[in-house]
Amino acid sequence: MSGDASARVAETLQSGYIGQGPRVEEFESALRKELGIQNLLTVNSGTSALHLALHLLKRPASGEGFHGIWPGLQPGDEVLATPLTCTATNWPVLGNGLELRWVDVDPNNANMSLDDLKQKLSSRTKVILLVHWGGYPVDLDALGRILDEATPHLGFRPMVIEDCAHAWKSTYKNRFIGSHGNLAAFSFQAIKHLTCGDGGLLVTPNTDLFKRGKLLRWYGIDRDDPRGDFRCENDVPEWGFKFHMNDISATIGLSNLEFADRAVEQHRDNAKFYNSVLQNTPGVELLENATDRLSSYWIYTIKVSRREDFRRKLSESGIMVSQVHERNDKHSTVESYRSFLPQLDSIIDKIICIPVGWWVDEIARNHIADTIKSGW
């Protein structure tokens, strides 16, 4: 948290406007400048951003925002998704009346396996919901080639939603994640690189979806209508949600923009150190680090042998480690969607995340690395 956040929040609290107001507009303008993306809108969480993204892919009565051969989402349509993520990624699929189909993971990077995805694409597949695990970007060009090849056979092109919760300022081929023409959802939750306390961001690939999303994040009411009482004088042609960000959260976000850049750089510096000193360590396997993309390293994941022994050794040395997320497909609420995922099975008992955050200084990271290299 930046040092001036408290004073700026106090100023907002005394401003007489703490709902969605001028600070939200200022924050959105700053985000457009930061990311080089025009069609973006803030919401109250990354989960809300994902829910709204899926909802926007349902065809409205007017048909606006839908072009070409995209059919629009219908209840029961299929979403290809990764089970290795926070449940907040996948529960919006269920909340929109859609069906999950799990895609295996790539054991080299913990992202969705594009080989398995290619095999599972079908006429029922309307959306691909991917996660950039730990901030490491999915190979978006390879995904695009798969969809290009599949589109003539499917009769439409499945839409891609990127869960960018881990990926603030991650880049793929020198462009920020979120700027590659897909729907994209970011999280500004308490422990993310950029935090608003809680909040989120939705990026849309065209202006029609942006305009519709802007309405639907606030009940479907047009807050930009020039008439005085927009709550009472407007018709609501399409119902929406209470997903908007407020000025308190936006003020925290504005305060943290520069801090977030410094945080990402420190995460990357710590990751670079681990990449160097932990390579060839017995019992440790590092994840992929391709040269055409740059991770934010929100977390630093490794694969280790005898994980519980590893966890115990580091805990005894005062080092907290974590798996971070449980595989979603094991939860009883999605039991009916369970499937054979051999690559996830092969790594789920090996992956562990070691401290990489901005608070990890040189002394701490040397202690972490030395402890790991001493064996367990």
Which topology of the largest domain does CATH recognise?
A: Aspartate Aminotransferase, domain 2
The number of distinct β-strands equals 13
Gap between N and C termini: 35 Å
Mean pLDDT: 95
> CATH class of the largest domain, anyone?
Alpha Beta
Largest sheet entry: 7 strands, mixed
CATH superfamily of the largest domain: Type I PLP-dependent aspartate aminotransferase-like (Major domain)
Helical proportion, percent range: 25-40%
Description:
The protein is globular and about 70 Å long. The chain is of the alpha/beta class. The two termini are 35 Å apart. It has 12 helices and 13 strands. The chain has helices at residues 5-13, 22-35, 46-56, 87-95, 114-120, 140-154, 207-216, 230-233, 247-277, 307-316, 342-347, 362-373, and strands spanning 40-43, 78-81, 99-102, 125-131, 159-163, 171-172, 175-176, 183-187, 200-203, 284-286, 293-294, 300-304, 351-354. The chain has 2 domains: 5-255, Aspartate Aminotransferase, domain 2; 258-373, Alpha-Beta Complex (Aspartate Aminotransferase, domain 1). Strand 6 (171-172) and strand 7 (175-176) form a beta hairpin. A 7-stranded mixed β-sheet has the order 1-9-8-5-4-2-3, with helices on both faces. A 3-stranded antiparallel β-sheet has the order 7-6-11, with no helix packed on it.
Structure described in brief:
The protein is an alpha/beta fold and 376 residues long. It contains 12 helices and 13 strands.
Write the layout of secondary structure elements.
Blueprint: H1 5-13, H2 22-35, E1 40-43, H3 46-56, E2 78-81, H4 87-95, E3 99-102, H5 114-120, E4 125-131, H6 140-154, E5 159-163, E6 171-172, E7 175-176, E8 183-187, E9 200-203, H7 207-216, H8 230-233, H9 247-277, E10 284-286, E11 293-294, E12 300-304, H10 307-316, H11 342-347, E13 351-354, H12 362-373
Parallel strand pairs: 2-3, 2-4, 4-5, 5-8
Antiparallel strand pairs: 1-9, 6-7, 6-11, 8-9, 10-12, 12-13
Helix pairs in contact: 1-9, 2-9, 3-4
